[in-house]
Amino acid sequence: MNALSRFFSRLEGPQTLGRGPGFWIGFLVVLAGACAYPLFSDGYTVGNTVYFFTWIFMALGLCLIWGYGGALSFGQTAFFGIAGYSYGILTINFGAAYGFTFVALLIAIGIAALFAALLGYFLFFGRISGVFLGIVTLSVTLVLERFMAQTAGPEWKIGAARLNGFNGMSNMPPLTVPWPGGDIVLFPDVQLYYVVLGLLVLVYLGLRILVNSPFGNVLVAIRENPERAEMLGYDIRKYQLGTFVIGAALAGLSGVLYTSWGQYITPSSMGMTAAALPIVWVAVGGRSDLTTTLVGTLTVLAVFQALTIHGSQYALVVMGIMLVLTVLLAPRGLIYALARLIARPFTKRQPGDA
Amino acid sequence: MDVGTLAFSALYQFGDAFAFLVLSACGLAVIFGMMGVINLAHGEFIMCGAYVTVSAAHAGVPLPLAILIGALVSAAVGALVEILIIRHLYDRPLDTIVATWGLSLIFTQGTLIVLGSTMAGVGTPFGSFTVGDYSYSLYRLVLCGMAVLVIAGLYALFNWTRFGVMARATIQVPHMAAALGIDTRLVYSLTFALGAGLAGLAGGLYAPTMTLVPTMGTTFIMEAFVTVVVGGADVFLGTAPAAAVLAVVKATMTSWYGQLAGQIGLLIAVIVVIRVLPRGISGFLLRERA
Predict the structure, then answer these.
(1) How many angstroms separate the CA atoms of A79 and A276, rounded?
(2) In the predicted structure, residue A352 carries a pLDDT above the cut 50
(3) Which one of A59, A80, A173, B89 is most buried, by most CB atoms within 10 A?
(4) Which residues on B lie below 8 Å from A287 (Cβ)?
(5) Residue A206 pLDDT > 60
(6) pTM for this predicted structure
(7) What CATH number does residue B56 fall under?
(8) Is the pLDDT of residue A345 over 70?
């Protein structure tokens, strides 16, 4: 029991909303509901829910970089795309046998993280911050999109994998679990749902531990005042770079899951519109907290899809309006504002609460 | 081919790249340099200018006048955006980026819904001329001249007019300027409108040379970003020299490996430059002078 309570105490702290048995009982209820959900639903709807889940990793990564680290990265979709393409190239060349798809997943995330480390080195060690960081990362994303869009010719291939320019790559094998008596192929259905749900819980809890650890506290100190954090003896460049790489790896995880979910990846998944969407999810949800980001991302995605059914053109306009209104009226996020409103009667104000 | 024609060809390509960089960046640079705000809807103001210009030209207005109308309409839209949104976010520069990105989504998709996926353009005026074995578009030379004219015009505006003096005072010490009776809110509105108008001008000038689609702003925006990042906060000591340096990179890479190589070259240049000169060329020059 003691070990369990020690574990829970690492999951909560000043950097995250939600503490105490009440919150965790609620968390377990939601988790149980999520586990039971496929029993009450059909394969198609479950596959669609997995589609929502794949994006959350990227949103959580952006939440870490932007909400906790205070560095606005517009390049999340670049890492998403790099990992997605890497996964496609690796699995088309080496197949899906012996659980190679999961090795490819790790390698693809590694490539995205490596690219982020390289880019982040120039940015953070050049002490680029604020608005410039945003526009440089966005420029990188746009150029990467244009580069991938012009790889249509037959000369653009890596091994057996054609890059196919604007149309993108397709027909890579989905994630496959090696199993005695026939591999389990994770098509967008119930099996994939449980794998992704498991990953999601793991990442969510892991990030909670991270932001409440000394690393997370320093990160928030940097967000609040970089000079002060530096005067206290922290090398802020290393902390920012570390955060950037973790965020990029999470975006890469999203990219791989998305690619294996639909068995395709196109350059437009990195473009200007695609790059704006993670910002919308995180800003509307509430960038300064992991839980509100998670809830916000799911909510916005659901709204977006509901609108898309009635006309995808209008959905993007609504996203834009939502973003502008959030920034003007609820700068800390709609879900965040809502969460504080709900939580107010139940919590004693603690010193340090805003 | 003799040395003269080769030199002309290189100069022409440099001038073309220089004009593109200056014209696409100056609106962004004015707003950033004066207000510290990065306007992510910059590309959409360019698109707005191009669409209005072409619509006016289709209605029978002569092209130069049509371009002017395009710039003015963009400026008016810019003023409206400033009053409705940007004004409330001056103390939160990161949020301004996010809000203007929202605007960019709204404008791009709104144009797509209202005007459809493409619009009939107007032909490139003035025809072409030949030097040596190659023929060149005369209009590109006009664009090059316009780029120089815009820089000169901005210099005159900020140094020799009453508005320029008030704007610079507002930028340096806002509360002092306000105490001296300058309406700083009006100055900010006008500056933002000026930046949007310059974007519209760029759109109008380039409208005859490209296809009109709602996403055309994206074509300009990366070059504009790169120029402003390399240039830093000053339009004259930053944007112009940055455009000159980057034009060499872009023209060289483009003539070797094509359009995309030019963009990749720009991107690598900017990443290296920010590592060496984090505050851009103008930051470097101003520190040297001080």
Answers:
(1) 14
(2) no
(3) A80
(4) none
(5) yes
(6) 0.85
(7) 1.10.3470
(8) no
